[in-house]
Amino acid sequence: MHIPENYLSPSTCAVTTVAMVPVWATAVKKVRETVPREKMPLLGVAAAFCFLSMMFNIPLPGGTTGHAVCGTLIAILFGPWAAVIAVSIALAIQAVLFGDGGILALGANCFNMAFVLPMVGYFIYSQLKDRIGGKNGELIAAGIGSYVGLNAAALCAALEFGIQPLLFTDAAGNALYCPYPISVAVPAMLLGHLTVAGLAEAGFTVGILAFLRSTVPSFGLTEGAASNDKAVPALALMCCLIAATPLGLLATGDAWGEWGLEDLAEMVGYEPVGMATGWEWSSLMPDYAVGNLPEWIGYILSAVIGAGLLVIIFRLLASMAKPQPSFD
Amino acid sequence: MERPNTEQPLPSWLTQSQVYQPQADRDGFITKSVLAVSSVLARMRLDDGAAAAFSPSAPIKLVFGLACILLVSLSRNYLFVMLMLAGVLARATLLPQRALARVAATAGAAALLALVVMLPATLLGQPQSALTIAGKALVSTGIAMEVALTTPAAELTGALRTFRVPNLFIMTLDLTLRSIVRLGEVALEVLTALRLRSVGRNRRKGSAMGGVGGVVLLKAAEASQQTHDAMRCRGFEGTYDGGRAWRPRRIDVLWICLLVALVVAFSYLQGLM
């Protein structure tokens, strides 16, 4: 679901980025108010879960691949606004270091995966949680919420792809950017996400949430300060996920809408001009690969670097945040 | 019976209301000096370094850190740098909050400086080399800071003794570290006194500032004489025991294996690109 560079026109990228600015501003304000300083490092661990879950590619019907995002998971644990910040930073690291998703398209990717996904997922979860009730009510609500949230994000991405050929064509009528119209993009994206990727998202969310609720109940905005010792099971789970990331290599093929220019030209019969002449960022570890090293080593290295960076960033943010002493 | 009036009228000079507003004076330089000295002192006192449960003994840590920095500098491509970056980040996640902030600030500043210096390379179409150099600066500084912040100062100087560094050198280092804290406290006291006594406009503040340096110098000379006398009194004959002998830990074996693995990885990765 990571929209690569040049698949969207610069104007679309600009509009989505401008749309995200007030969202980010509100999110920063809300997170300052709601997330206590001592919980910020845990938010970093949650962001690392999100980063790692995006590395597990799953084969989808139609020969493409998809992945979970775990945005709803962070929204359930720390609130939807914290999820906006966490997923946005994870997406920025992916775009800058690993070339996963475009730098110009970061606003669009954040809109889909860091805003629409956690907001929709959390809304559904909060509506269902109390209605279902029972021992597993929270987990069922989390599963349904994350499934719907991921599909809402996929729909947004498909619409962004789909409006490109309507708005931007050259004199010959060829698309300048993404060549597939809404009638192709929406079914193609949703087919994979409604069937497999949505279920994977629900599986990741419910699995990690159940694990955290049983081993580290203080992980999240629930009462009780979480010390580093208590978060050990969560860190252990993170290490297991890092070690398992090469499983994401089993799914061969590209995700829908993330093909290289040559592959796309082969499929549609021409090279969209805007894409061929567009600017592209040369990341240090494109596609989570490190030079000529075997792919699985590159994957594990990328996972360690990405997850480590996220944990460090959120710990540094916590050290910069003002202490909020309680005078009760 | 009439009580005698024992209340004396206030002297006239006391009844006058005084409005004394000291003239504003620029004393930002004193505040800055006080802050700088205090921050150095706070760092020397508080971040004395604390070894983690999995830390090797200080000599092994020193060798490991130096070898890593050497390998990172020698590597001709970014593969090994990436490998070490992953290691540095993984260690940094487990550092205490304050130490993490210092590592991030120092390593980040070094990387940024390297990137700025290498900016012309980016403009000439070699962005990769600029990123590699910045990455090397980040990793090397990160390793150095992590070694320094996770080792108590006494253990570090003790580690030098294991490497047969001359005792005179270790003694100088030990005494310097102790003197910095003591003389820093003196400087802080004198600066505070200067600040408190300069009410209003004080034209001689600048020259008084020079006096601070003089006082610290005199105190240093006095302290060194006293230290010398004290050491002679305790039977100092010119040989200095620079700390305890090296006590290897079990975990050292693991770290040595890791170092060997890193050297193997280094030689393998050099041949790849």
Describe, in short, the structure shown.
With 328 residues, chain A is mostly helical. Chain A has helices spanning 10-34, 40-53, 71-78, 80-98, 106-132, 137-162, 164-167, 182-215, 232-244, 261-268, 273-276, 295-320, and strands at 58-59, 65-66. Chain A has a two-stranded antiparallel ribbon.
Explain what the structure shows.
The complex is a heterodimer of chains A (about 325) and B (about 270). Chain A has 12 helices and 2 strands; from the N terminus they run ααββαααααααααα. Chain A is mainly α and about 325 residues long. Chain A starts with 9 loop residues before the first helix and ends in an 8-residue tail after the last helix. The mean pLDDT of chain A is about 85. The chains are: A mainly alpha (about 325), B mainly alpha (about 270). The interface of A and B includes residues 290, 312 and 319 of A.
What level of helicity do the residues of chain A show? 55-70%
What is the CATH architecture assignment of chain A?
Orthogonal Bundle
Radius of gyration of chain A: 20 Å
| Total helical segments of chain A | 12
Strand content of chain B: under 5%
Q: State the low-pLDDT regions of chain A, or none.
A: none
Major beta-sheet overview of chain B = none
Number of strands of chain B: 0
- What would you report as the Rg of chain B, rounded to the nearest angstrom? 28 Å
Strand content of chain A: under 5%
Q: Oligomerization state of this entry? A: heterodimer
- Order of adjacent strands in the largest pleated sheet of chain A: 1-2
Secondary-structure content class of chain A: mainly alpha
What is the CATH class name of chain A? Mainly Alpha
Mean pLDDT of chain B: 83
Please give the number of β-strands of chain A.
2
Q: What general outline of chain B do the C-alpha atoms trace?
A: extended
Q: Note the overall shape of chain A.
A: globular
Structural class of chain B: mainly alpha
Count the domains of chain A: 1
Cα distance spanning the termini of chain A: 47 Å
